[in-house]
Amino acid sequence: MSTTVTMKRCGTCRAEKATTDFYKATSSQEGLRPRCKACINAAGAKYLDRTDRICGAAGCLVLAYMRGNYCKPHAAANSATWQRNNLDKLAAYQSELRARRKGLFVEYVDRRIAYDLSDGVCHLCFEHCDYDDFHLDHILPESLGGEYSYENLAPSHPKCNMEKGATPNWMASSVDVAFETWLVEAEYEAMYDDARKAAVA
User: Fold this and answer.
1) Which of 96, 118, 143, 170 could bridge across to 164 with cysteines, CB 3.0–4.6 Å?
2) 3-state DSSP call for residue 36?
3) What class has domain 1-52?
4) 1-52 and 104-177 share one CATH topology?
């Protein structure tokens, strides 16, 4: 009595092989892994060969961590150095990540472009911000659903941003003095214009 051997095509090498050349997989509809045993074993050997490398740091003979080029201590040190040298990128990434986790709208925002769009003026106190020391502040706070976009982000002094906190009514902070002064001047200008128009008429 002859036994019929069922064939299956490997998803990696694309070769037709017997079903006995595939590992079982209970989650698969046909009960077999998509790749043959030979391809899976070759991939595993390649991974082990890659992880058995020496750390790339000078004088370090420890094996590289996971699939990286450095051991765990040197990888952590390199990461910390990058974060210290790229505080603006780190802050932007963390803010964007928080917005994504909350399901808010997120678009790529370049700090330099956002700074230039406002001519480097703090949107809270209307004074100029130093490019090397400014916060990219949410106009509508993130905690209240403010999106991460050019429309809702504006430069501000770190002190102004800290005083504002998470309130959309930034006049609650001490920077309201500058705004109130501007508002009074605008009202006087409007009253003067109205009086001049009435005199001409």
Assistant:
1) 170
2) strand
3) alpha beta
4) no
**Which are the contacts of 67, defined by CB distance < 8 A and separation ≥ 6?**
47, 50, 51
Contact between residue 65 and residue 77 where contact means Cβ atoms under 8 Å apart: no
Q: Where are the domains of the chain?
A: 1-52, 104-177
| CATH 1.10.30.50 is the classification of domain 104-177 | yes
Mind listing the pLDDT tens digit of every residue in the chain (201 residues)? Answer: 444 558 899 989 999 999 999 999 887 788 899 999 999 988 877 766 555 577 778 888 777 776 677 888 888 888 899 888 887 778 778 888 888 888 888 888 888 898 998 899 998 888 999 988 888 888 888 888 888 888 888 999 988 888 877 766 554 444 455 555 566 666 667 766 776 666 666
Q: DSSP for 162-190?
A: HHHTT-S-GGGSTTHHHHHHHHHHHHHHH
Query: Could you tell me the pTM of the whole model?
Result: 0.47
Backbone phi and psi for residue 200, each to the nearest 5 degrees, phi listed first: -70, -40
Nearest Cα neighbor of 18 from 26, 32, 27 is 32
For residues 141 and 152, give the distance between their C-alpha atoms in angstroms, rounded to a whole number.
9
| Pair type for strands 22-24 and 135-138 | unpaired
> Are the CB atoms for 148 and 102 separated by under 8 Å?
no
| Residues whose CB is less than 8 angstroms from the CB of residue 91 and which lie 6 or more positions away in sequence, other chains included | 136
